[in-house]
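Re: the multi-chain job from yesterday

Posting the exact lines I submitted so nobody has to dig through the queue logs.
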Amino acid sequence: MDENGHIIEFLNVRKRYGDGPPVLDGLSLAVGPGRIFGFIGLNGAGKTTTIRIMAGLTVSDSGETFLFGGKVAPGSDALQARIGYVLDEPMYFDWMNASEYLRFVAGMYELPSRVAADRIAEILEVFGLADTHDMPIASFSTGMKKKISLAAAIIHHPRVLVLDEPFDGLDAVVSHSIKGILRQMAAGGGTVFVTSHALETIEKLCDSIAVIHKGKIVMQCETKDVREKAVEVLGGSRSLEELFVGLVAEFPARNRLSWL
Amino acid sequence: MTRRADRAILWYELAGYFRGSLPFRFIPLIPAGIFLAAWTWRIASPFAAVIWIVFIGLEPRINNMFYGSVRELEALSLFPSEWKRIIIMKNGSTALVGIWALVLVSAVCLYFSPEAVTVRQIEDAVLYLMTICFPVLSLGNEASSRYPRRDAGAFSGGLYDPLWMSLTLLAVSVPYFIITELVEIPWLGLIYSAATAASWYFRSVARTAVQITNRRNVLWMKTGTSSNS
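And the result, structure tokens for all chains:
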């Protein structure tokens, strides 16, 4: 944690791929401990790049990123040991079965064998993956793959959990169990950083929210203050979805078809 | 004592290799090895064919070692493990797979060899392998981190990659021939081998680890599939 009590902090971070427009254009945001932080934006707004910079997978052109008060830099392994990631594209090795993969991940985090075995058994049971036995992850459904990704991200009990679109393609039951685990983690003092297009879910799940648009934060507030913000921005009390559309829509956001 | 992460990588490498398609590379190579071993026995040790087949069969593991599976490089970088240790474990597992392949290819190819193999030929083959294995691994580390190929299949890449491996083998064989044929002091081969091992550990492994860390933006773009922003 830094001197201001932030677990995650971006300071004026810029990133551009090739000659294209900036993906992150002076991004600054901070997240404290014990919070579920929702990070929302349109496709291409810069959410995934933000997460990849946090994970050390992408290097920013300028600006600084801090985790636990330490600067994210190539080879910052000690920081990464305290974080769990569920990225938008699968990072698992799909020829393994669920239990092999979790054993591998536990080994990479140096978990003692006994602890790893206990946690794996419990996770597989809670996530409903105990019956998958020798099925390779490649043959899992989308929901099962999301669950195994989340299981791998939390097996070492990280202090920060970063999730990119964790609810995409999930049924209500799986979403419900994932939300429960995220709430449990935040209640235990952990920090959850989550991006999603499911604005209703974000509004119900998160303690605070930031909206990114064209690489800049255009709004950051506590979830309980969304209605107040909506009054400020739109001149009336609206939902997060309407506030979001009001903030980022570059053309009149029509929701009616003339011929229908 | 090895760490759990080292053992996890070693298991990942060995299980991934034997459950994947790469061992099937040896199926078309072994008949070629039988032919070569039968053909070259008058002019060279039958082990020459065996060793060539083994290195061609292991080419993707040596020259493209971070593409055992899609997004492997990115996935491994999310763990708090030093790249130096990952590279050592990857090279170590390649050596273990190489020993398996040597036994397999030798058993098949030498069975068809017209002449019985002598103890001297085995000694020469072991010395030869000792002199070339670390240089080949070092060059493979360089190739893997500088020019990763976006393919993971057993037969992808065409003829270019086996040809490049053959040229590499020829180049790294030169010191062995100087030591055994010109200078004719075979024990010098042991000293040379120890020197190449030291160079692999202190130079190649360290350099490759730095390369991966510093060039991650480029490498991830080459090997990853992410296009989201």
